[in-house]
Amino acid sequence: MLRTLFFLLCLFAGSALAEQASVPQGVTVPSWKQLSAEQQKDLQNFSQRWDSMPASRRVQILERYDRWKKLPPAKREALREGVQNFQEMTPRQRQNMRESIRYVRTLPPEEQKRLRHLWASLTPEQRTQWLEAGGPGIAPEPKQ
């Protein structure tokens, strides 16, 4: 069940997550000491390398952090569960998931939309079977 949630979230993310953030002209990227106490606490995994990271990477992290903070608590929890589920997958399952996500990101927006509609129309059992077979790009689409 969680695996399907994680896949769905990745599917909806589409190619947007694949794009690199850039630093708009005139924007100053804060150093570690310039971050708020809350940001430092929440982003503590980056503390040792923050100031040495490229500015574009820091902008990307801050943009994702801002989106995360705006999510309702239920969505945040669903994302945490998806990450946990991904970590519990076998190496083969994780590789299939990566390949499937990579495949979906290469599709034109209309095809990604078609896949989202297909996904929404499947029963939980059909979703699970498709993912266990490899998912989009690896296994054939389930018959409806």
Description of the structure:
- This protein has one domain.
- The protein is mostly helical and 144 residues long.
- It is 62% helix and 0% strand.
- The protein has helices at residues 2-13, 37-42, 55-70, 73-88, 91-106, 109-121, 124-133.
Which short descriptors sum up this protein?
144 residues, 62% helix, 7 helices
The helix tally amounts to 7
Mean pLDDT level: 84
Please, how many domains?
1
Q: Kindly state the percentage of residues in helix.
A: 55-70%
Question: Could you give the count of β-strands?
Answer: 0
Low-confidence stretches: 4-8, 14-19
Oligomer: single chain
Rg estimate, integer Å:
18 Å
What structural class is derived from the secondary structure elements?
Answer: mainly alpha
The main sheet comes to: none
Return the string of H and E elements.
HHHHHHH
Q: Tell me the fraction of residues in β-strands, as a range.
A: under 5%
Please specify the SSE layout and strand pairing.
Elements lengths: L1 H12 L23 H6 L12 H16 L2 H16 L2 H16 L2 H13 L2 H10 L11
Helix pairs in contact: 1-4
